[in-house]
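User: I'll paste a sequence; please echo it back and then give the predicted structure.

Assistant: Echoing your sequence first, then the prediction.
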Amino acid sequence: MIDAFVDTLETIPRGLVFVGLGLIILVIAKFARDIITPYRIDDEVISKKNLAVAVRLSGYFVGVILIFLGALYTPFTTVAEEGLGFDQDYAEDVLRVFLYSLAGIAALNLVRILMNRVILYKFDIEKEVVEGQNVGSGAAEFGMYVATGLLIAGAVAGQGGGPDTAAAFFGMGLVLLVVFALFYQLTTPYDLHSEIEGNNTAVGIAFGGNLIGIGLVTFKAVFGDFDGWNSGIASFITFGVVGFALLYAMRLLIDKLLLPTVSTSRALSVERNMGVAFIESAVVISAALILFLAI
């Protein structure tokens, strides 16, 4: 069967194989979401024009593709070294990308339960997004899906590890995301839960942006070849601590340097200023990208 698969691959340009596989993964991801949701996604997005559902679904799709790209990272480098030919190793790499992507889809859907019970536990996210069309809640979920996708992408990318190391770093990354969410709540003068539950879109956008920021930091912490548990855990802890400090510092600097005439927390919680929310998200994500590329 592998031989027949390889013969088929030989007739298709390498890039198109992965483009096609990515589209298949998205279709499977949408099918999985349709199965586990108690409502019809298409009806919510098309007929009811539910922006909250559309926003959360967009984050879900981005997270899925990030996982796909993380799994794709090693096969691309391996094939590039061997030239343009296709062999059994290449076919196995395609299969590995597919299986890791399926596992990532399952993980993203499980993380949604975690978010509802551990991170935003004071209200029912599903009810807010579907019945209340709460865009702030959808934006928070968008950030959670992207952050989780980055985490899984970093865990499965590179060489030297396997499913066991990927699962271990995924678990540590989830703990980091939860701790960061609690830290974010403690360092804001308003109650995150009540603001989002009260349809404050600005607070949801800002929180989602910060989740993406810590997701990038976590991606950096787990990304790369596995050289052993000691170095891997040490790198994870180092980048986790640096990331917390950096993102918190950038939130403070927004008030002092970028928007000195306003209080960011007041603009988000009282004035519900989505422009400020997007600026905060852009700044923390930019800071996380600088950390990722500079270190």
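The chain is about 80% helix and 0% strand. Residues 75-87 have pLDDT under 50 and may be disordered.
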